[in-house]
Design brief:
Blueprint: E1 6-11, H1 19-34, E2 37-41, H2 45-49, E3 53-56, H3 97-106, E4 111-116, H4 118-129, E5 134-138, H5 154-175, E6 178-183, H6 190-198, E7 203-205, H7 213-225, E8 231-236, E9 248-251, E10 259-261, H8 264-276, E11 280-284, H9 296-315, E12 320-325, E13 328-333, H10 349-356
Parallel strand pairs: 1-2, 1-4, 4-5, 5-12, 6-8, 6-11, 7-8
Antiparallel strand pairs: 2-3, 9-10, 12-13
The protein binds 6-O-phosphono-beta-D-fructofuranose.
6-O-phosphono-beta-D-fructofuranose binds near residues 140 and 261.
Amino acid sequence: MAMIKRIGIMTGGGDCPGLNAVIRAVAKRAMFEHGWEVFGIEDGYEGLIKPRFRRLEAADVSGILTLGGTILGTSNKSDPYAYIDPRGASNARRDVSKQVIRNVREKGLDALILIGGDGTMATAARLSRDGLKIIGVPKTIDNDLSGTEITFGFDTAVGVATEAIDRLHTTAQSHHRIMIVEVMGRRAGWIALYAGTAGGGDIILIPEIPYTLKAVAAKVNFRRKIGKKFSLVVVAEGAKPRGGEVVVKRRIEASPDPIRLGGVGFVLGDQLERLTGQEARAVVLGHLQRGGSPTAADRILATQLGAEAICLAARGEFGRMVAVRNGKMSSVSLDVPGKGPRLVPIHHPLIAAARAVGTSFGDE
Ligand code: F6P
């Protein structure tokens, strides 16, 4: 058993539906079951650096289960080991991790619950090695975090993307167009695969299976030949042609992972129009997939993960990330998620099922 009186909770990286459900579960279990004080850390690691801590009462975490975003704010820019001060004069990176550790100790926080993706967990692992008591909670709409079988936010993102595909289906059909829907997924194509299958996409392009324009155009032409005058393409932002590159939208220098993708849908639309002679339109769903209320499945998963994090803290199992393994609540070392993304296996049963109903992955 760990001697804990006061904990801190932080949300880091991109926001994600279900973050507030985790905050609620963590805070309620800590307060009601253990009588611990809970402090919210604002705006990700930025709040640990500055510091910006605020005490959370039960009332602060009541009524937030269904809320999108995070009541604590978040940031995907502030790495304490390579920090660029947003208000500083220079763009030089500094190691301010000792300042973070000092802030945590001065505030009397006995343990930290850090909710985030691979970047947040990689930093959490370093802080843990440097002496802080940390439990991680996995988060990303992309569902690509190593160590856990599923992340909350994914189900909501798939729902939003599926609804968009459904709506675009009818307009594609009416105008006899190629309609391209670009979804999130930098390194892994989970959202494209799931939403594409649920929405009946004719072509699904994911980072794990580089496509050829020839195969994509051939599928569109084949459909036209058999009387299907429209085609729906679902493309992950990180999809790329065989031997080609991803489409980069911008660089955010202060971010530990500075590349922001976006625009492959528009590039593909122009190329397909030229190759097939059929009119094309592209829609980028972007941050719509991250906003709004979480689905029931995401609320449940977030609540389970948050409640489990406090069990780990009470047992003194620090340096771990709560995780779903074999369908059950479990945990892995904080080092695991930073080691690389959990990609869609190219022999995933859903890929086989989608191919069986005629979906092309642009690789034939
Ligand atoms: O990792 C989550 C994610 O939503 C990715 O799918 C996307 O590429 C990225 O974050 C976008 O980041 P930002 O919010 O900085 O634009």
